[in-house]
Request: fold
Amino acid sequence: MHALLFVVAGLVLYILSYRFYAKFLSEKIWQLDPNRQTPAYKYEDDFEFVPTDTPVVAGHHFTSIAGAAPIVGPVVAAIWGWAPALLWIIFGTIFLGAVHDLGALVASLRHEGRGIADFLKDLLGKRAMQLMYVVVFFLLVLVSAVFVHVIAVLASNFPAAVYSVWIEIPLAIFIGLLIRYKWKVNLYVAAIIAVVIMYAVILLGVRYPFQLDYKTWVYILLAYMFIAARLPVWLLVQPRDFINGIQLVIALAFATVGIVALAATGGGQLTAPALRAAPPGAPPIWPFVMVTIACGAISGWHSIVGSGTTPKQLKNERDAKFIGYGSMLGEGYLAIIALLTAVVGLGVVGYNDFYGAWGKAAWPAIWAQGGSTFLIPLGIPAVVGAAFFAVVAKSFAMTTLDSAMRFTRIAFAESTVTFGLPKFLRDKTISLIPGAVVIFLLANSGYGMILWPLFGASNQILAAIALLAAATFLMTLRRPTIHYIIPFVIMIITSMTAMAYEIFTRYIPNGMWLLIIIGSAVFVCGLGVVVIALQTWHSKKAELTISKDV
Reply:
């Protein structure tokens, strides 16, 4: 089997799903209305609620949901072979992930752009909302801690990529000012110039690498994310994500053309087995292939983005189809490319070295070295290609930091209302502190990638709850719910099983008390929300039946 078949199968199935299934969900199930006023206009405040052109919102949403997770997850999951990973990425994206993302975004748009934990009160009551805030908070700090680790590893292992990633910050701020003050400059041209500058600086990094140790990068990143979360959304987050959206399109285009060129020269054959049911030291293939791939197929993190910054910027409700469903398809394709770097790009020797046993898969090296193989037929030297792929991964991970810390602040500020906490805690600076403290503890715990399964399980518990919330909302609208109920059942069983396995087989035997506390809290609170939801579902369905009969 050839790598090109992965690309063709993924693209064809994703295009067909957008053409037919996304259209069905948007028009028949959610009934998107271009004339309905969006929260961005209704609550415009020049800080969070900012009506923004669709391409900019799409870039922000796409890069915020993507981050480095659809790179890390598929690369690590390749230990179970290419077949289970590929099938889950493609079909999980189409029937679960993209459906989830569209539902979370539309539900938030119909609830004043509020966060998923906040508007859950309208659907399931105050107690469910309080439990949901616990799940959301811990997921956010896990996302932040995991990506601080990911970026610190990339920066310390690939110093040639440092300049390109950090020069993007002033470039993004400049473009943010262009947008804000409506200077007569073509936005696409400005963003493409920014990307060209970033890529040109790779050559500087290759010649004069900027080297700092892992621990120093952790502290720099913690400080950066605190500052970035305090800035208005239009100044850094929006333009940075727009630049990265263009960067990702370029990166995927280069990788795709490279794979085609590789095929033309007789290369690109699969070097990994189709299935490895029990690799040495690895957890069970189910549920962990799904949990490990995480954002590459479905992610509760996306419900936070889709109910966090994105609905506060959307000008037209109808764009939810392109931004919600379409962006997830783009992330799925990124996950396919990431999988190929491991099962094709490394070669037989490289795959055997990295995947001989669980825990040996150093994903930054696999992504960069495996990806550089696809660029060699295009005349790009391996060292430059590796730096290019490292820049892509680090840039997207940085956008996750920008968004995760901001969402942590928003979620904590919103939760102070429901928990009756003092009003001063909603201050835009003070509300950053609780999340920052927990992130600091996790980032300095030394757990590193041990956090990934905990993040994955928490992430998909939240995804299951978001699917159930969307189904409940549809039920109140008297519309079909089956498209959300089936994915909910799949994800709640998968994610709860994974969380219980991690707690009882890894965390408790090894005395990992911080992880035991977080994992148990997410499990219990998630289960509590599901129980409340099922009770509410039963009562509301009875009410709707009675009103229909009357």
